[in-house]
Every structure is written in C-alpha cells, then in structure tokens.
Amino acid sequence: MTDINADAPLAVSSTHSPMKFGEFVVVIASIMALNPMAMDIMLPALPHLGAAFKIADANRLQTVLSVFLLGFGVAQFAIGPLSDRFGRRPILLGGMAVYCVASLLAVIAPSFELLLLARLLQGLGTAATRVIAVTIVRDCYAGRRMAGVVSLAMMVFIAVPVIAPSFGQAVMLLTEWRGIFVVLMLYGVLALIWSAVRMPETLAVADRRSIAIRDVLLAYRQTITNRQTLGYALAAGGLQGSLFAFVFTSQQVFTEIYHLGHYFPLAFAAIALGVAIAGFTNARFVNRLGMRVISHGALLGYVAVGGTMLLAASNGMLPLPLFMALSALMMFSFGLMFANFTALAMEPQGHIAGTASSLYGTLTTLLGIGIGYVIGQHYDGTLLPFATGLFLCTLAALAVILVVEKGRLFKSHKMVS
Q1: Which residues, at least 6 apart from 345, have a Cβ–Cβ distance to it below 8 Å?
Q2: Residue range 320-379, pLDDT digits in tens
Q3: Which residue in 155, 108, 113, 153 sits closest to 129, CA to CA?
Q4: Which helix (H) or strand (E) holds 361?
Q5: Is the N-terminal amide bond of 81 cis, ω within 30° of 0?
Q6: Could you give all domains of the chain from N- to C-terminal order, each with its CATH number?
C-alpha cells in the first residue's frame, strides 16, 4: 500500500553536484530534447523522402515518425531496470552513443527500409535519454519541486521542437534530406560529450537493485498496481495519442488543406509555442497552486478544445486562424498537464524510480503511438478524423482521471495503491 500526498511541497537534497541548479536543468533539457528534435526536424523532409525512395502514398511516409516512436517506446521497458542496477550514467551514455551511430546509418541509408531501421535505432537510443532524465530528476527532487524542475527543463527543451521544423526547412534549402541526419548526429555527439563530462552518477551503489527477473517483475507489479501511477500513465498515453496524431498529419494538413507550402514550419512553430508558454506558467505557479489544480484545469480545457474543433470540423467551418488558435490552446493545455502528470505518476515510486520511469514511458509512448497511428492513417484530406480522435482521447483521459481521483478533481488527498 502507498499512502502519500503527492501534491505536498516536498523537496529532497539534490545529488547533481558539481553542477549548479541552472546547468542541471539545461543538461536535463538538452538530453530530453534529443527525442523531439529527431521527431520534428523530419517534418519538412517527408515529401523529399517520398520522392527519393519513390513512395507515392503520403500516409506511408508517416512511418518515418511512427517507427522512431516505436523504438522509443519499446526500449524504455528495459532502460529503467538496467539503470536501477548499473546506475544512471552508463545507461544514459550508452543510449546516446546508439543514437549517434543510428544517425550516421541514416545518413548513408541506400533504401527506405534501411532508413526505417536507422530511425528505429534512433528511437531506441533516445529511450535512454527520456527515462534517465526523468529518473535523475526524481533522484534529486520530489513533490512540487520535482514538477517545477521538469517544467523548467521543458521550457528549455521545448524550444528545440518549436524551431526544429523551421530549422529542418533551412537545412533542406542548403542540402538534401540526408543533411538533416548529419545535424542530428552532430547534436547527439555534443550532448553526449557534455553529459559524459558534467553529469554525475545520482544513484548510490547502496541503492542499486537486482535485475533478477523475479525482482524486476516485482518492481513492475508495484508500479502498475499503484492506482495513481497507472491512472496518470493511461491518461497521459491517451493525450499523447492526440498529440502524436497532430504531429503525424501536420505536414499534410498545412500543405494540402491550408496550402502553406514551405511556410508550414512557421505555422507549426507558432502552435508549438503554446507548450513553451505552458512550461513557464507551470514552473511559476505549481508550488503555489499544486499539480492537481493546474493539470486538472488544463484537462478540462483540453476537452473544451477538442469539442470545439470537432464541432467546427463537422460543419466545415475550420479556417486556418481558428485551427491555429485551437491547436495552440491544445498545446498549451497539454504542456500544463505534461510535467504534472509525470510528477504525480512518479511520486509514489521513489524507491524504484528507474523501473517506474521506464514502465511509465513505455505505457504512455506505446499507447500514444497506437492511437496516433490509427488517427493519422485515417487522414482523408479533411480535419474530421483528427478532430474526432482528439475529442475521444480527451474524454477517455478525463474518465480515467475521474476514476483515479474517485470523482474528485483539483484537490489532493491520500492515495492508496
């Protein structure tokens, strides 16, 4: 049984010395950014990939994104237990090395199938950065302080996916699509060197756990049988599904429906700024208001956005300005939920932070990929499939949170696993 008030303003002594707090946040953000960078910088290159490999079906090109997320989701399942046994540093650095090698493989890929293999390996590598980053934060902080650190990190790393499509478009103007993977490889190498030189080990030898199958399964059982952890993971996965669907179809939506052409990365960046603003807002107010007040309010806002978009799309009344405004509000709401859902899910799992973080990441990512892929493959030249999927995802997430919180939103209370 777990008896914990996860919204209490707890804090633990940081163990990231010799780094100061500011550098710690930036390093965490930089390694977390490897994943969204590898996702969003590809968006302008998708038509060029289709031409290079003679792929006429634009929906098939979405696999360049979905296979990356598949590797990312599956690998997280093992990263946590390994980091709980061998420490954070070796797993983090090993994953980043795999990412760099995979980026090189993508540069020289002679076929679409080999490119997909490289993307799968990139996803495997970034799984380590995602799991270990959250785990390191949990090693050093707890409660609202943890949510604040995650929000500050999100403010830094969210700048990468905001500018990534525009940066990718600039790269495409100077070179071919392979140049994008050169950029990803160079960024990965720099992040690897910085982490190797400055990031300390945050898991004491005395706190390391066995990776015997029985012990790992016990840790997984402790994670998935905790009402708070599992509930927030399922809700986050559903919401990520709607976000992934937006990313998968964004290039087609902006170029085919709204005819923005090469300007679509600017529209994408303007929408994605909503997440950055949310990160700043959450970091500023989470200590005062608490994780539940902010994230539950954002969830209700997400439901309202989904319902409005579905109503407008059903009546054929979704011009570009309205779509941009609703999408920005969607991103803003998601940003307010992102750090807080993660912190609420992880709060009861301090004793098995690595394993819990990996299972949380696997559940949310694979659920998100499955939902996002299904919605994306139903793209038919209109916004109705996306709007329908978005609204259903939000309703499902709200239902799950209501069950977890026993019908009581906004207020913290004792949770029992």
Answers
A1: 228, 229, 232, 233, 236, 356, 360
A2: 999 999 999 999 999 888 778 888 888 787 667 667 777 888 888 889 889 998 999 899
A3: 153
A4: helix 353-377
A5: no
A6: 21-404 (1.20.1250.20)
